[in-house]
TrEMBL record:
This is Quaternary ammonium compound-resistance protein SugE. Belongs to the drug/metabolite transporter (DMT) superfamily. Small multidrug resistance (SMR) (TC 2.A.7.1) family. SUPFAM superfamilies: Multidrug resistance efflux transporter EmrE. Gene3D superfamilies: 1.10.3730.20. It comes from the Bacteria. Keywords: Cell membrane, Membrane, Transmembrane, Transmembrane helix, Transport. PANTHER family: GUANIDINIUM EXPORTER, SMR FAMILY PROTON-DEPENDENT DRUG EFFLUX TRANSPORTER SUGE. GO terms for molecular function: transmembrane transporter activity.
Amino acid sequence: MSWIFLLFAGISEILWSTAMKLSDGFSKVGWATVTILGLITSMLCLLQAVKHLSFSLAYPIWTGIGAVGSVIVGVVLFHDKFSNATWFFVVLLIIAIIGIKMTAGE
């Protein structure tokens, strides 16, 4: 169950960061509200995950899910453009997240 909470925490991280962009500097109340609710949800899910997972495992996976997810959202929704070198480092981040999980012994 802790892994499910961690996954939801990461997805909420992507949600709030996307909503923050869409809030246009918090000038759009609806998106600003989604940002705040996403932040709260992300923190609460992370809190539940670290009850049974080590913090040194959960935190980098949570931030990694948020980072990679935000990159993908940026490319798909906002048409961000990245060089091949940037994509190389995104792939390295994914590999690092998988490596942390596989070697943590949990």
